[in-house]
Amino acid sequence: MESQPRIAIIGGGPAGLTLGVLLHQQNIPFTIFELRSEPTNEELEQLSGMLDLHQETGIAALKECGLYEDFLPLTGECSQDFIVADRSGSVLYTHGGGAQLRPEISRNNLAKLLSRNIPTSNIKWDHKLVSATRRTTPTRVETELDFGVHGKQAFDLVVGADGAWSKVRGLVTNIQPQFTNMYIITLTIKNITSKYPHLAKLVGTGSFSSLGKKHAVASQRGPIDSSRLFLWLTIPDEDFGASSGLAGSPATIVKKLFSDDALLGTFTGLSKELVETACDEEAKSGENLDIRALYALPHGTSWEHASGVTLLGDAAHVMLPNGEGVNAAMFDSLMLFKAIQKSYETSGKDVNLFYQTFDPLLQEYETGLVERAKKLGKETDELIGQMFGGEDTAPDFAQFFRNIAEGPEE
Question: Which fold, 179-295?
């Protein structure tokens, strides 16, 4: 009997780590290759975005990992309440989150939870994938991965969990993410309750959105009693970050957006104060402004099946932020794991038999992934349209949450 199948996971984000935990629990060999250096404990204690995990997807994956009970104590820094306000910061509706059906966890805490349940020897940090080449052997196809100074290695299954600009995706399709006519700027106010209690009251304990003119001032509560602000700008200029002078500048430069009615000029009152306060607080860090263009793949992007290579998460279906991204990615990992596990058990760990039994299971996985992505893409378009589809969307968005609270009509 030949050696066991060689499995490579490219990318150590939530999707790659989830797949790693699941494989490790079943004693299926694998290696995760991550571009970044291994984060220190101090780095993992820093602020990061909050992720709400959903029962049927992200939490289902965590339960399969056996980590649900460990997950719960790491939640609670952001409630499920959602406040909708107009451009002046006047609150139109507060949606109570109710029971913890979608508990929030910081991205760093999720990374810690998952990575600490994978042997350190299974994760190779500082490994940048330079190129990937598929080649045919007498019995199967394998993929050679070139990690530059770390050398080349061949694998029987390569999983692209390497995000929006995936290199692995290039093995199966030339499709690339497209600019969405949207930019996002991230700012943070730490210790907001003690320093700015009136602003803490405005943004509440969960999420907050002030909408209008196809833009938004959004907030999400997080660690260190923080308010993490996301300024969504609808901008047709893909080079706006550079052409506006915002990229590479201190955060205080954002204040100039309030002098242009086409940008944030019509945002006033507490919404404006919230942003300006965040600019001043962020400037104290000495870091340049966090601004980025948003890209997405066409909904339901598919590819011609290639034996021994597949994608999951943003590599397969990156979309605009919609509260579903990490959940879809973790569920992809769960579904791919089940296919690998089934083939592994059937083949008796023989690499040639694994390859033969796994290929049809891989095609089934990819078909399911694409169908889920199509559905999620449609829902994302509807949500983004409600938030940014007109000049004054706040009242309609508030009504959207009222309808959720009231439930379907009898």
Answer: D-Amino Acid Oxidase; Chain A, domain 2 (3.30.9)
Summarize pLDDT for 105-119 with one digit per residue, the tens: 888 899 999 999 999
Domain boundaries, the chain: 7-78+100-177+297-388, 179-295
Nearest to 307, CA basis, from 175, 167, 171: 171
CATH number for the domain running over 7-78+100-177+297-388? 3.50.50.60
Report d(CA 55, CA 70) in Å as an integer. Answer: 15
Mean pLDDT of the chain: 90
Could you read off the pLDDT of 239-262 as tens digits, one per residue? 999 999 999 999 999 999 999 999
